[in-house]
Structures are given as structure tokens and as C-alpha cells.
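Side project, low priority. Logging it here so it doesn't get lost.
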Amino acid sequence: MTDSELSKLIISGSVGTDALADDAQDEAETTAEVELRHVNVPIESHGSRLDKALAACVPEFSRSYLQQLIEAGGVLVKGREVLKTSAKVKAGDELTIELRPTPQSQAFKPETMVLDIVYEDSYLLVINKPAGLVVHPAPGNWSGTLLNGLLAHDPQACFLPRAGIVHRLDKDTSGLMVVARQRQTMDQLVSMIAARSVSREYIALAHGAWDGAKTRQVEAPIGRDPRNRLRMAVVDLDKNSGKTASTVISLLDNAEKHCLVKCKLHTGRTHQIRVHMAFLGHPLLSDTLYGGAIGGSLQRQGLHACRLAFAHPVTGAMMEFKSLPPSDLQAAIAGFGLRYNPAV
């Protein structure tokens, strides 16, 4: 499949886009080939703004990108150019949209890379992701991502939204991820994660000696930090936008100035463990975004996805995978006199 054909698949919705890269969709490359899309305003969009109706008709593009497209004359309403994003449309109005591949869509290219695959069948993969590997193309990381590697590993991945990726790990978090290889499997895995029937456990190396109960359940909503839009924070939902977040944190070992804990996710918010640990006064080692100081030779946050368990979405068989922390994290753990027992 050529890059041009792959871009067409992405534009037509065969490969999904992602909200994390919305900013990159704000500019289409003028040299890319154009696709004309003809759609009719659905009844539920009757009386809506043009940009809102358009976003409902072509959800694979961000609203901000579509607004720029309208203002650039790239959208016709019943054959007439409309330049106002706020123009009202009626049910049944024909919209002609001049779509161009976005920088994000052009980033969906196969790139051969070594993947640490711990399990593979016709329906899914389980991958042990190294620290430093970005999961999905986004501003600043348009190539060399796990998604690019998945497209090279399995050409059929181009027919799946996000190449089958159903959950993520931060760039500098290592460990286990499950990836779908078929659309039905992907839909089931997404539903299972939402229903909290996929068990995801992490080990975290943090600042400060642990005090109090050995196990704590943190119920603290997470949203964009109102004081720093580049990070997340525990927020008051009466005052700020956010979502509920739940993490069970258990002490594994303690030292004078550091602790090693296991974290079990019950929700999957952005940076959830990092935010909740900082909220408790235990920022992760080397997690400078959330108040952690660089510790020893560890140059990334001390977080590793150590266990993944779920019922196979097709066969129903119970599956469990474990991953030891990589050498950099093991060295840091030992360097502070802490011990990690993978059997716990």
C-alpha cells in the first residue's frame, strides 16, 4: 500500500484520528491530493452551526481544522461557498467538503522497528513497550511511534482506528500494552476497559517514605491544571472540568526518603498515577512535570506497567501477563535500598 493510499484510508475514516493531535490538524498541506466529500446534514443537526454540523458528518477531523477549511472556502452548502463557521444549516442540506490529508494522517506510515511482543494471536497482541517510545503520532512526534511499528508489523493494521491501539502508556513509562488486530476485538477491548474488566497494574518508585495505611484507594477527579495547561491535576469538579479517577495504591517497600508502590488503575485518565501520587505528596522519581526530582541515573519517571490481565475477547480464556521492570528502574530501586518482589 502506498503512502497516498494509506492517507486516503485515514481520511475516509478507515484509520481513526485522535484528540491528542487535534492541534496538528489545524493546517492541511497544500501539496497533498484533495478528496471531495459529499454529505447531507442529518436531522439531528438541523439548525446547527455549519462547523458543528460538519464535525458530526466527518468526525475524523477536528472542529478547529474544519473551521479553517470553511474560512478558506473549502466547504460548499447546496453548491454555494459559505465562509462563516457560524452559518446555520438545515436538515438535508448538501455539504461539499474539500478534504486534504493532514500532517497527522500523513504520519500514519509503516516503519520497521523491533517490537517486544510477549503474546500474539489472530485477534490481539500484547507488547512490552520500552521507555522512550511514543505510542501514537502527535505534534513533535510524527514518526518513530509504536503505531508506525504496528503498521509495519501487520499491514492489516491500517484498517483499524489507531492501528488497533486501545489504551496508552506515556512516552517515558515502560511496560505492557494490549493491541487489537481485528475491529470486533478492538471494540470489545475498548468496552472491557471502560467496564473496568481489564486489570492494569504498575509499579512506581516515588519520593518520600510511605506513611499510614499500607493500601489506599485514591478517589480524586483529574482535569487540565487551570494554572498550567501543559499538565493535569486533581481538580474540583464544581469549579473545573475533569473526570472522576480511581487508583488503588499499595506499599511494596519503604526507605527513609523513597517508597516503592504498586498502583492498580480503575479508570484511565491522562497521567493518572503520576497525578495521584503527586497529590498524595509522593511524586514519582524523576517525574519533573509533577514535582519529582531526578534520582540517580534514572532519567525518566519511575513507572512501569508490570501486569496486564483480562478475559480474551474472543475465546473467553483468562490471560495474565507480567513484566519485570527494565534495568534502569531496577537499578534505581536497588540504589535506594528498596526491594521488588514480582510475586507480590
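Brief comment: Residues 245 and 272 are 7 Å apart (CA to CA).
Revisit when time allows.
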